[in-house]
Amino acid sequence: MERRNGPGWLEVICGPMFSGKSEELIRRITRFQIARIPVQTFKPALDDRYATNEVVSHSALSVAAESATDSAQLLEGVRDQTQVVGIDEAQFFDMGLVDVAAQLAGSGRRVIVAGLDLDYLGRPFEPIPTLMTRAEYVTKSLAVCHRCGGAGMFTQRVIDSDELVVLGATDSYEARCRFCYDPGESHQPSLLSDEG
Ligand code: ADP
Ligand code: MG
Ligand code: ZN
């Protein structure tokens, strides 16, 4: 992909689940669409929670999207005329996404990446943290803590599972603030009978 000077840059939108990352991505992409700037939005193939041909927010906003199995396939899918590339749920892509995003920005495209910065155990969730260091613009979104209404910055798993990826979302996770977040909580089976 040819490098050239232009409006190319990288924007990252990060935060926990329910913080409005997809909403914000959809808002930014839709503005370009309305201005008839060619856009493409991608999401990882494993995230088929709602629909495979669109990105949908918890507040039911949506934008057309293409699935990619990995960062290489995403790069191949970008058309020559595309000026704005949106990527949702970017934490489910491989580390190669860092170079792909840099390549796309270097070719004069605006790249807008949304994803979780922390996993359910509160650990940095690559490739988002590295993408943040390579981005011109970083937005960290907060959700409303489901327990106390505070600044929800963590994603609390409220079902009992050790899998890094448990899709299905809304009833498996809550947004929590630093005081209400407890990474050990999902391992207490009693919660299931209490709450579920
Ligand atoms: P994300 O992509 O970060 O998971 P979405 O953009 O899909 O978030 O959804 C954000 C929307 O989710 C909010 O506008 C609101 O309607 C809804 N929502 C549900 N629970 C919460 C919460 N605890 N805090 C904030 N918004 C919430
Ligand atoms: Mg989302
Ligand atoms: Zn709280």
What does this structure look like?
Helix content is 22%, strand content 24%. By secondary structure, the chain is an alpha/beta fold. The protein has a domain at 9-141: Rossmann fold, CATH 3.40.50.300. The strands form four sheets. A six-stranded parallel sheet has the order 5-2-6-7-1-8. The radius of gyration is 17 Å and the shape is elongated. 38% of the residues are buried. The protein binds adenosine-5'-diphosphate (ADP), magnesium ion and zinc ion.
Can you summarize this structure?
This protein is an alpha/beta fold and 196 residues long. It has helices spanning 21-34, 71-77, 97-106, 128-133, 190-195; strands spanning 9-14, 39-44, 54-56, 62-64, 66-68, 84-87, 110-115, 137-140, 143-144, 151-152, 154-157, 173-176. Helix content is 22%, strand content 24%.
> Quick one: biggest sheet?
6 strands, parallel
CATH architecture field of the domain at 9-141:
3-Layer(aba) Sandwich
Structural class: alpha/beta
Quaternary state of this entry equals single chain
Order of helices and strands: EHEEEEHEHEHEEEEEH
Shape: elongated
Q: Which small molecules are bound?
A: adenosine-5'-diphosphate, magnesium ion, zinc ion
CATH class of the domain at 9-141: Alpha Beta
> How many angstroms separate the termini?
50 Å
Separate helix tally:
5
CATH topology of the domain at 9-141: Rossmann fold
Helix % is 10-25%
Strand order within the widest beta sheet: 5-2-6-7-1-8
Residue runs with pLDDT of under 50 for 5 or more positions: 190-196
Whole-number average pLDDT?
91
Radius of gyration: 17 Å
Beta-strand content estimate: 15-25%
